[in-house]
Amino acid sequence: VATRHIVVVGSSIAGVAAADAVRAAGFEGIVTLVGAEKHVPYDRPPLSKQLLDGRKSITDIALRPEGHYAERSVELRLGQAAVSLDPTVREVVLADGSHLRYDGCIVATGARARLPWPRPHAAGLHVLRSQDDACALQRDLERRPRVVVVGAGFIGLEVAASARTLGCAVTVVEMATTPLAGALPQEIGQRIVQLHEMEGVRVRCGAGVRSVKVGPAGVEGVLLTNGMTVPADVVVVGAGVVPEVEWLRSSGLSMDDGIACDRFCATDAPGVYAAGDVARWHNELFDERIRVEHWTNAVEQGRAAGMNLVADLDGRRDERMPFAPVPYFWSDQYGAKLQFAGRARPDDDLVELNDGPRGFVAIFTRGARLRGVFGINAPRQVALGRRLVAQGCDVEDAVAVLGGAQQLRGA
Ligand SMILES: Cc1cc2nc3c(=O)[nH]c(=O)nc-3n(C[C@H](O)[C@H](O)[C@H](O)COP(=O)(O)OP(=O)(O)OC[C@H]3O[C@@H](n4cnc5c(N)ncnc54)[C@H](O)[C@@H]3O)c2cc1C
Fold first, then answer.
1. How far away, in angstroms, is 293 Cα from ligand 1 center?
2. What is the pLDDT of residues 356-403, one digit of tens each?
3. Which among 81, 259, 291, 401 could bridge 274 via Cys, Cβ 3.0 to 4.6 Å?
4. Measured from the CA of 16, which atom of ligand 1 is nearest?
5. How far apart are CA 257 and CA 245, in angstroms?
């Protein structure tokens, strides 16, 4: 029997978790992990936190210890982007022209930073997605410049916190009326603004950016849609991400703002699964097609895709498990841990359960059902809340378990 081959494309957390899972599931064929970046697989969350403010170095952020891949016979093909996938002949083609025939493939190519305007090539202008991006930004922050962060999403806010911790003057500019709009309701956005203002960061919400002003020496500031200019030596754009799917254009795989997958993380091509930031799949628990751009999902989905692919290749398709987690993310800002578990919509009802000088817990509900839990410095309640959402817990029970209620709005 010919040796079987699983190709994992994307050597970040979802791809590494998938390769590990394939081996843990007992697959004994060849496993190749292909990555466009030349670096050994590293962790992204520290790029905006400990790596940026100097608490960690590059060697601290490796995803796995040295020897991990060799021990599992996972062959690394780093510094090699995959340029196409042909499901009819089951082949992935790499930038150097090599063709990798696969029995099974897991696509974990993640996402890249979005730039709202054509990128002017200017000193001091940054996005933050990769280790190289982080190192370039870190070098610029050494001069303790005036920093403007465009976009008050999680990455933007973390960059603001790290730059402020380093002693930079920092302004955050956000088009929406509160930070994290779309992801979390206004009440929580306002709390996060307070956190930043207490540390001396200026947060300007409701301010659109028309362009980045560039002079002979690099960026000089950002021009707002109201005609005002905020001066800056460094501008960091945190305007969201786009799934990395262009290399799949000729593959015929169905797309849906990301790769369209079923509840098992399978794409519509035989033997091809997807995981992580690049995948949109049907999450049965919420009966929704979702794409999640967070670390824990990438780990859990990489694992699920790896296990399901091996079951599929072994002819045990009915043993595959639907991937139906409660999404979870965290963010660290000025030593505060912000966490959210669940699915929230801006029109969900919000009930504040605990509020103290150092911690905060609120739950999101729709009708009688618990939809999500948000906490600041409340890891125990968020972990518990995540389990309650998974169990389909109703609001009364959730309030009883998680603490006494003080209503903010709704219900
Ligand atoms: C600065 C930063 C901070 C973050 N902080 C948090 C946090 O605090 N909490 C949290 O929950 N989440 C956080 N995240 C999000 C989290 O890191 C991502 O959800 C996670 O990295 C997604 O993993 P992934 O493997 O799906 O994709 P990615 O991490 O995007 O990796 C995809 C990999 O595929 C490679 N690739 C792309 N195209 C190709 C190709 N054609 N061929 C070969 N390789 C290719 C890319 O180079 C990349 O290495 C953060 C992200 C960033 C950038």
1. 8
2. 767 889 999 989 999 999 999 999 999 999 999 999 999 999 998 887
3. 259
4. 25
5. 9
